[in-house]
Amino acid sequence: MKKISILLASLVSFYLSAAELTPAKGVSILYINGQEAESKLGTNPIADGYNQIVIRMDKEVGRGSGGNVFTSKPYVLDLEVSGEIIQVVHPVARSKKEAEIAFEDGQPQWDIRQDGKPLQYKQEELQGKSGLFPYAGMAALLEKHNSQRGVYFNNGQLIDKPVEAKMISGTVVDPAVDTTQAMSPTKVMQSSNAEQLKAWYLKSSVEERKEFRRWMIDQE
């Protein structure tokens, strides 16, 4: 029962600290931490700390009969989240030409704000395949992108990333220290279970989350 309480407390803590990622009109959220976003055009929960999102601009540009939808290439962004509301706005693009200019150098100026203030980010263009549909099978392309950079996710949870960005309780991990040796098998299992619970919770519907919280209360 004590182990269950620890895991549930970890889950509740994650839920309470989760922020909301909201795209402006014309922005599509494709992936969050290696998993397909629950809503491409709506709000998604996003964890505190390091997050990786894949976004794309899908915006109608031009006016009248000359208007059409400009779809950019997808971009992989790294964020450090510490607030509650994260908003993503596409680069200025009022015409097709303006949109093409905004993306031509591979470093489009997304306007990302955390609780109303600018949030810094790093970005890379996701490399597609050759051919007519370069981004078919995007999940595999993203996995390849991450593996080349030493970034790994399990059910939406970060399990490894470059040492310069790796944080444990706000402390940079020393690459010379093998942290796996410092954790007992029991602690490793508890951590794995907690991450799995968090992932299941985020995948659940609103009603399923309510039912789960009621069940948690009954266990106390």
Characteristic terms for this protein:
220 residues; alpha+beta; six-stranded antiparallel beta sheet; five-stranded mixed beta sheet; 5 helices; globular
Can you describe what's shown?
- Belongs to the UPF0319 family.
- The chain has five helices and 15 strands.
- The protein is an alpha+beta fold and 220 residues long.
- It has one domain.
- Strands 2, 3, 5, 6, 7 and 11 form a six-stranded antiparallel β-sheet that branches.
- Helix 1 packs across helix 4.
- Residues 12-16 and 164-189 have low confidence and may be disordered.
Mean pLDDT: 80
**Ends distance:** 9 Å
DSSP summary, beta strand count: 15
Proportion of residues in β-strands: 25-35%
Order of helices and strands: HEEEEEEEEHEEEHEEEEHH
Largest sheet: 6 strands, antiparallel
Q: How would you classify the helix and strand content by structural class?
A: alpha+beta
Q: How many domains make up the coordinates?
A: 1
Count of alpha and pi helical runs:
5
Percent of residues in helices: 25-40%
Query: Residue ranges: pLDDT <50 for 5 or more in a row?
Result: 12-16, 164-189
Rg (C-alpha, Å)? 20 Å
The best one-word shape is globular
Characterize this entry briefly:
With 220 residues, the chain is α+β, with helices and mostly antiparallel strands.
